């Protein structure tokens, strides 16, 4: 019997494909350039040289139009449409027709096709896999240089064929040719090994991911947690819970079920230290800023796992333990403020933002900063200086120095519209007189201004903005959600007026207590009126470490 080669074996044999990837100029590229050159250049007779010609390049706009109308451009638009609709069958029809017509396919065409063939679709799964491998082979035959998306899609094909080993091998080869992987590049291999229950290989993928500087998010950590629970790897479970604490903070419902599976298991009841070093636990809590110690599973016996809530002071309704507010390192705040300033100067007119920084240095620091536009536009339509002033005065009363907070408003709101009302004008002039108003210039994004002011002043920030849009994603830091939790104040309207919702007195993050118990918050609505569900895992037979400290201090 003839043994068939693995569908991707041609790609994982370096003697075949490495010269292709390392080369910067391919015959295929030459062919494509020649084919498209007639669309992007014009020839004319040079008057200074009899019979000579000079090549004149089209403008960028003209080149785009030429490609748009070319067979290659038409095919790409069709594939984009299929991609948005998830239509694998139609995309393959377009591909087959294009090959018959001799259309030259480029990297974008192939990546779209590979992506479509790799997505999960029960109706056409087998056909998608079969054609996906064929298209990948054709791409290499055409000597089209792959990129990260190509490797990732190929890895997805391998994972869909339930071959995470091949997906991991593709990842390694991608790194070997200096293509930087992304988080998505690791997912096919990682999820494939976790699904197969192969914990050790999943950990190898995870280690490679860490080595590459890729930070796992909840889906990846949740998969690692599940395979660790199922294979009874208690040290890994402990490690991943702390990684969830550090990066995710609050878990989704699906992850919460995995956490419950661990604490409810017979195996977990057997794990834990009956005796431990009190001083090391204390040192761990102090060094970590509170809320965790990192000394491993403490205590013994079955866990009591319940879904519960905590009160406004952070006291658990189940075990009565009080959750803590975890400190933020001042150096982290300074570093974040510097990175925020750098990013703002790149996105805003630099001279405008530098002017604001100098103004803030003269008039600050403040005890609170107000996102004026967000607060004044509470109903989304009409700007209300009355509402804005109400919360400004409430913040003033809460200030230790009774100082007005800094109000950030766009110049158009300071000088136009409702601001022209005499009563509002007097209010604005009073804020200006007290150095408590800054008008951001035309064309600026006031988000940069109020966020920088609050971070640099290490003060409260009043805004109902959830701070999730592109601007805040640019910050790309685990520090920001921690800072936001401890500093954001919200305004709530009711029939009795406007009231302030202050930051929680405890940190809404996975917490490991000194006596070994755990509290895990779940993701809920941003509405502070909706109670958050917490998981409480405790061992009732444990002696509280706090009482141990107390008895120790008394004996001294």
From TrEMBL:
<dbReference type="GO" id="GO:0005739">
    <property type="term" value="C:mitochondrion"/>
</dbReference>
<feature type="domain" description="PROP1-like PPR">
    <location>
        <begin position="63"/>
        <end position="269"/>
    </location>
</feature>
<dbReference type="Pfam" id="PF17177">
    <property type="entry name" value="PPR_long"/>
</dbReference>
<keyword id="KW-0378">Hydrolase</keyword>
<keyword id="KW-0496">Mitochondrion</keyword>
<dbReference type="InterPro" id="IPR011990">
    <property type="entry name" value="TPR-like_helical_dom_sf"/>
</dbReference>
<dbReference type="GO" id="GO:0001682">
    <property type="term" value="P:tRNA 5'-leader removal"/>
</dbReference>
<keyword id="KW-0540">Nuclease</keyword>
<dbReference type="InterPro" id="IPR031595">
    <property type="entry name" value="PRORP_C"/>
</dbReference>
<keyword id="KW-0479">Metal-binding</keyword>
<dbReference type="GO" id="GO:0004526">
    <property type="term" value="F:ribonuclease P activity"/>
</dbReference>
<protein>
    <recommendedName>
        <fullName>ribonuclease P</fullName>
        <ecNumber>3.1.26.5</ecNumber>
    </recommendedName>
</protein>
<dbReference type="Pfam" id="PF16953">
    <property type="entry name" value="PRORP"/>
</dbReference>
<keyword id="KW-0819">tRNA processing</keyword>
<feature type="domain" description="PRORP">
    <location>
        <begin position="310"/>
        <end position="536"/>
    </location>
</feature>
<keyword id="KW-0677">Repeat</keyword>
<keyword id="KW-0809">Transit peptide</keyword>
<comment type="similarity">
    <text>Belongs to the PPR family. P subfamily.</text>
</comment>
<keyword id="KW-0862">Zinc</keyword>
<dbReference type="GO" id="GO:0046872">
    <property type="term" value="F:metal ion binding"/>
</dbReference>
<dbReference type="InterPro" id="IPR033443">
    <property type="entry name" value="PROP1-like_PPR_dom"/>
</dbReference>
<keyword id="KW-0464">Manganese</keyword>
<keyword id="KW-0460">Magnesium</keyword>
